[in-house]
Design goal:
Elements: E1 2-8, H1 15-27, E2 33-37, H2 43-48, E3 55-59, H3 77-88, E4 92-96, H4 108-113, E5 115-119, E6 125-131, E7 143-148, E8 152-155, E9 160-167, E10 170-180, E11 183-188, H5 194-198, H6 200-213
Parallel strand pairs: 1-2, 1-3, 3-4, 4-11
Antiparallel strand pairs: 5-8, 6-7, 6-9, 9-10, 10-11
């Protein structure tokens, strides 16, 4: 059975939030794979062994503990290089929401992701997410609304954007995808809280993204 390693949970983004969606995906048998909850401290080992995962799902920011000063970042130069080679060699990286935050633009990680978080308005607002014809997977179009952080991001010029977010604050890229070497990279911006991850369209979006990463 194919394996998915999930690295989630930081000071601002409890891992229980994204697992609200992942548990629905597992319970609904929407994917045929084993999903494991992994601490970020284990990522270097996960990238070293021959028995690497088929997909890495990253749902956490780079800072080890944003609630404290000088705790450092988990993405060291060594891990950055190993993660790049994992994807280049045929692995898949699914980046969700928080995993765009606090990563330096000059890291291999950000270059693979082709973008990074810049800011969001202080208050949650109504954000509408609408897909377009560039969707990499064969699914019905997405069009849903959440009370959410409206993420503003900086993208590299050649990002294949297949969803935008719309709110009173403007329009922003909300999902993009590309091949990287022999592997795949997929970025999904929604959402911030547990209620958002329980939304059926968010569950469908994440399940579709995982299946695309698994080539199923």
């Amino acid at each position: 059975m194919k394996k998915i390693y999930v690295f989630a949970g930081d000071y601002y983004h409890p891992k229980e939030n994204v697992w609200a969606a992942l548990n629905k995906i597992t319970a609904g048998a929407l994917i045929d794979a084993e999903i494991a909850d992994c601490p970020i401290e284990n990522i270097e080992n996960a990238l070293e062994y021959d028995n690497k995962p088929d997909v890495i799902v990253m749902v956490r920011e780079n800072r080890i503990d944003a609630g404290k000063e000088d705790t450092g970042n988990w993405l060291t130069d060594v891990i950055d290089d190993k993660l790049k080679h994992y994807v280049e060699g045929g692995g898949a990286l699914l980046v969700i929401h928080a995993a765009l935050a606090s990563y330096a633009p000059d890291t291999e990680y950000t270059q693979m992701v082709k973008g990074h978080f810049v800011h969001h308005p202080n208050e949650h607002c109504a954000v509408r997410y609408i897909s377009n014809e560039n969707m990499p997977f064969n699914e019905e179009a997405f069009d849903f609304e959440l009370m959410d952080e409206h993420y503003f991001v900086t993208l590299l010029d050649d990002a294949n954007v297949f969803m935008h977010s719309h709110s009173e604050h403007g329009v922003q890229p909300a999902a993009w995808s590309h091949n990287y070497g022999q592997g795949k990279v997929l970025i999904l911006v929604p959402t911030h809280n547990k209620k958002g991850y329980e939304h059926p369209e968010v569950v469908r979006l994440i399940a579709s993204g995982i299946k695309w990463c698994l080539n199923t």
